[in-house]
Write a structure and sequence with these properties.
The structure is a homopentamer.
Chain A: H1 8-16, H2 28-43, E1 63-69, E2 74-79, H3 86-89, E3 94-100, H4 105-114, H5 119-126, E4 133-136, E5 141-151, E6 156-166, E7 170-175, H6 183-190, H7 201-236, H8 242-272, H9 283-345, H10 354-357, H11 361-382
Parallel strand pairs in A: 3-7
Antiparallel strand pairs in A: 1-2, 1-3, 4-5, 5-6, 6-7
Helix pairs in contact in A: 7-8, 7-9, 8-9, 9-11
Chain lengths: 386, 386, 386, 386, 386
């Protein structure tokens, strides 16, 4: 197993990109909301199982990439219609059809007919607002997942829907717009590296799901980075704008949590499934995946609690700042108001004020005033206000 | 399956209407409360199973619409009494009796007798304050749901009770006042479009429940819109009235949650039921419905957390405003109180004050005062108060 | 079934009374606490199963009312000792013995011996601080419930303990002081109205439990009324005393919740019980009762959340009031402190102050001051302080 | 059953003592902490099952009291070593060995060897920081409980560990320092009163556990008393020191909750156990005990919520006090700052100020100032500041 | 069993060291974060089961220590490669291979091949960011735990990963850098003390896990110490920096909780496992371990609640300080502002001010002013401001 031969440039590209992002996840919620809204209204009244794509058209052209492999050979090419799939579906080779872009529904309809996929499954693939889910039938296994991806141009964290249909010798993967994240797996297949080419379509499903899950770790790293930055800022330089960042961070964590939470149950059902589609030897891998999803959900919960703590520390810091302002006001007022009263006394115009005529009176007043200031300082010192 | 043939105008009507609503969901709680109160008191002492309608009379006249259909034909007409149902109940055709308005209980009593419905079921149909529930017997299946609907005139979100009684070849649906929301289904039946006319009463029940559930998505969209508006307002222009809006939004979410929460269990029981009333082929549809209810409850929980966050951000914003007020006071007081003291000194009337006679003393005092102001500004700058 | 024939005056009496109550539930907690305390200490060291009554003597005289009925006849009379029960216990007629007042334990001991009731059951009847519970044996079924009742004189919500012992043909009900709430049932029995006289002791138990549960709805209505009043007051006229009302309301909800929470489990066990005591036909009624208890617990949880929100809105309102106070102070100080400084300048007594001799200087100073005030107003306007 | 014959003086002693306590539960946490710390560190590296006592030596001398009884006779005496137990272990009489003081481990080792007790059980008896637990083997049943007791000298609530080993005809009870709380039971045995002498060692175990549980009620009464006192104080006279009392009360409730929480599971396991050690007739008693533990845990949860509410009301009260202070400042400043400005005007020394020479000007200024004060008062009245 | 013979110096060293630590756990989160981040990114795209070490190189040289023992003899020596293990793996003696340092993966690969360990298990050993877990196969049992250890130089609490592979006659233990904590066990084996040398590899596993768990108690003691210090500080001398300490303490508790939480399930699975690897006699020990983990998780939850309470008390204390500041300002301003007004009156230059010419007027003004001050003091006294 030579890791050095692996397509490291692909890995590096993925790792490096996000480093420049999530500087401003503030717009996230607003970006997601319009999409969701449109769909919810549009669905009412449509008969169940209608194969209509209601999401945004995120890529110009739908691309369908086919990768066929077994232990001895592997090849990859693009196709245009479902008819081209036919010849290779009944070979013992594993056939991986990766569809990127969902706005052309014809291909999906053809697949649905040829592979006898339930219309509701096809509807779920197109409804990019679905909840992550798993459907297990005798003939195929259907999984919907959410992919968390960084958009380096808009500097936001995007959710995208990824679906898989697993058959005995084939796997369909559907992405809204990003399928490059699966390239490391494709490269490993084509270079016949690692054990992936020796194993069936179930291992391929696991490998793709593993990549999706690994991207959650990446997203949470970004969140953690941001928490640390905010943490430093809030403690060292609390400021009005941070409350908004904390609020947005919390909402972001809510969105991420919702994408990941159902995954636990999905992987658990995969482990417990004893149908023909999953080989027994895949179980340790699925349990590993299950551990990862638990690890992620625990990290999210921890980050949520840390963010809540951050909110409290922010509020306390702002209140401390207010305290400082009040102290300045109080010190100034407490020192000068009595002094102003003293000078006011000798500004009075009474005819009979004996002090006014004493030669040293003016200087005595200065003495009294300096004494008052001294007492004030002593008092403030004792109260620890400096 | 031609979606373009569907009664799009009906869909559009439903989608467009709410766009102008929920501008003021503030009155919601008060509107619902009186109704509920009246009933709770009125129930005490009545024997269980009393068929009395205690709710408001929401429509002038009770309308009873019957739709009969099978794969080959479909017809729809209005009837006036339960006797008219008899002839068609024992045909293999599916008979859908849609009752709108509950204040005439005679029809219900007749139905109860003819179809051997338990008195408690009839009581639950009339008690519009029931909790969503399911009752499964050998002969029929009874479901109570809450419908969330926008009232465009009063600009509020209303809850209404919808009940279904499903038999082998018939379905009764009872609405308090709105049955137009079921029109898309009726239109699909009458136009013999889609698979609904090829299937039994169980699929009809599913189709109607699906429409009720779809309206929850609509309600939550409205809530989401409102959260976004409030979000913007609170961050950009925090104001005393927003707290009331947030508080009302939270109470609204509590009401919605209570309407939806039991639905999960209801749909789950439908899925697990292995009686004769539900065909096996209906299960994927019910599971889809189940996913939708989970999706909705998750959205509500998320919205509740966002609203809680909004409350915190509001409180912080108000406290920031107070901070601003305090800063202005402190800056003004800190600058002018010492100056007033200085001018006070030379307002004193002592006979022996050497400075008073110096020719340039007045201008020196101005110099000192400008110096004090300068120092203050430097101090405020350092404290980041500007 | 003629509802109009029902003893409506009885119903009305019950409904009307509470309308004048819960004006001041503030004293509730203090009223309940002493009772509970006394008992807890007194129990230590007593052998388990001691038949001692440790509660307050709430009624002057213990009354024991017996109602015997079957489908054909019904009669009701008072008795004085347990011996008088003997003759009618072995008849097929249903015998309902309603005991009001618990401080005379002899009757209970006689009942315990004659009906072979476990001493711990008798102890639980007398220990009015028991938790709601159910005990199912082969021979009888024992239920403890809490009754929530309004005391119109002291204007508080009181909890009272009600216990039932159900045998095959008899039912004992024990109340601390109020048994009038069961009068509607007795009236229906004696007038041979409704199905109650056609059914056994199990249906009688259900009817009595149903009345106790209905009183919870009444209590929650009162709480809801109070929440609405507080809601209005807090939003329109926040005031120091409201915090105490909210705090008391929350404690009241805690007390109610504790009384009702175990009921869910009790009714659930009744439903699942397959002994001889409960006829199968009673099950739909029990499931209805179960739905009611769930409805009540959900209402309590909702009211608790609303009350928590009320607390937050109260705190925010009080903080808004403070903000108003600060603004007034700041506006006044910010306007007058600079003006006072200006007039102070020309109060100085320097010999060489050119302005003092300018004829129009005094009016110029007025001009400057008016200009300063104008600027301040513009500033406050911009800050939205008016 | 003659309750009047019972050792009432013993009961009274127990009930009276705590009346003078928990005046200051503030030191509780600090008192418990050192003990726990010492043990945790000292355990590391020791082989499991080491019979070493690591707690404080709480009593001077270990006392071992043996009570033997059956239906016909009962006697009680002190012994010094485990050898003296031998003669009476194989008699059908119940033998209750009550050990008070744990710092002499020899006796325990002898008991361990003679009665074949697992070393880990012996270790748990000595480790007074154990969690309440139950161990059921074929030969014996081992229970660890926490006893909550008032220390009237130090005025604190103390936790102490009590362990029981139940065999077929014997019961060992181990206390750290207080075994007088079991005296009522011993007295009942020796006076052959009640049913305890007619029953086996299992009933004895129940009777002792019941006493421990009854002491929890007592502790919670004390907490309730304290909550009520604080409640009154916070509402009527909020004060800086109360926050500390509330905080300590909450920590105290955490400690009590931890001591009681596991008890529920312990009693539940006793109920479900179908070994030889527990007779079937004991079950109603255990279920009664179970109800008590649930009652206690519910009371603790309620008290925790009340205490949380108390914290909120305290914070609100303190903020109200601040509000009062601000109002006083604002009223004073708002009235006098404008007046000071007015008098400042006529303190100016301009040559040409027409008003200065008007004879009635001084009185006019007084008129103006009184007018200003009047307006201010009207304004404050309108704002409800008085 | 002679405890005095035990390597007390080792115990003491462990106990003493931490006494000087956790003075500054503030840096904890930042220290852990970089490590975790690096790994998450680096994992993406790597094939599952890659045996690569991605953590820090924490020790210079990997050391592999082998301890072989049975009831009669025991010896311990260092080895360099997996080949040296071969001769002793098939003897009935227990072989404990303790590996310290993970950056040389060759040894692990050899072990993997020779003992047929699944690649994912080997990956988990190297991935020091794994979640605590257990894997049970027919041939071996794999456990990952987190060790909480104090770093006396950096004064922080560190987490380190410890893994165990248990076979029928061997045990592998893998530490990142610290294996001295296991020395007490090794010493007990080599000195043939206690029952450990009479028992199999399963008891050895238990003994090592017990030591890891005991270190959690130590960590929680340190946290408790710190809570107590903060507690004192916050109540007696609240200060801006404490909020940061409380926040860090909460985050520290989150980290500890995450390390310990899964342990409960791990030990529970060990108890329920009925494979060949664990002897039945080990069960009481495992149940004891289980009780300890529950004890620890309960302690953490309690400490979390106490820390939350600490946060609230801190906020209240800071708000009290602000209150004090406001009171000082208000007292000073309320006393001197009216006085300044009075002296201002007689500073006016009106020609006709009768008072100015009264001889005793000046002294009368002083009298009035002293009267005003007296009234103010009376008012403040009444308000309890002193």
């Amino acid at each position: 197993m030579k890791n050095s031969n692996l397509p490291n440039d692909v890995i590096n590209k993925i790792i490096e990109v996000p480093k420049t992002i999530i500087e401003a996840p503030i717009n996230l919620l607003k970006l997601l909301a319009p999409k969701r809204k449109k769909k919810a209204s549009a669905k009412i009244g449509l008969p169940p199982g209608s194969i209509v794509y209601l999401g945004e058209k995120k890529v110009e052209k739908v691309t369908i990439n086919v990768t066929e492999y077994d232990e001895t050979s592997a090849e990859s090419y693009e196709i245009n219609s479902a008819e081209e799939i036919d010849p290779f579906t009944d070979t013992p080779q594993v056939t991986w059809v990766s569809v990127c872009g969902l706005h052309e529904t014809d291909f999906l309809k053809q697949v649905g007919e040829r592979f006898k996929i339930h219309p509701l499954v096809l509807e779920d693939i197109l409804n990019t607002d679905s909840r992550p889910k798993i459907e297990i039938t005798d003939d195929y296994l259907f999984i919907v997942m959410k992919l968390l991806l960084f958009n380096p141009e808009q500097k936001i964290l995007e959710t995208e829907q990824v679906s898989f249909i697993l058959g005995k010798t084939f796997l369909f993967s559907f992405s809204e717009k990003t399928d490059e994240i699966f390239n490391p797996v494709k490269d490993r297949i084509l270079s016949q590296l690692g054990k992936i080419s020796k194993r069936g379509s179930d291992y391929l499903l696991y490998a793709l799901m593993d990549i999706v899950v690994d991207h959650y770790f990446l997203a949470l790293e970004k969140v953690e980075e941001r928490i640390e930055i905010l943490d430093d800022e809030v403690i060292n330089n609390p400021d009005r704008s941070q409350i908004e960042s904390i609020y947005n961070l919390r909402n972001l964590l809510l969105v991420i949590r919702r994408a990941i939470w159902p995954l636990r149950e999905i992987v658990n059902q995969l482990i417990k499934d004893d149908g023909d589609l999953l080989d027994e030897s895949i179980e340790p891998y699925l349990r590993d995946l299950y551990d990862h999803t638990i690890h992620i959900t625990e990290t999210i919960e921890q980050q949520r609690e840390v963010t809540n703590g951050l909110m409290e520390i922010y509020l306390s810091m702002m209140s401390n700042k207010m305290n400082e302002v009040m102290k300045v006001l109080t010190v100034i007022a407490t020192i000068f108001i009595p002094l102003t009263f003293i000078v006011g006394i000798y500004g009075m115009n009474f005819k009979y004020m004996p002090e006014l005529n004493w030669p040293w009176a003016y200087f005595a007043v200065w003495g009294v005033m300096i004494g008052v200031v001294g007492m004030m300082f002593y008092f403030f010192k004792k109260k620890n206000w400096f």
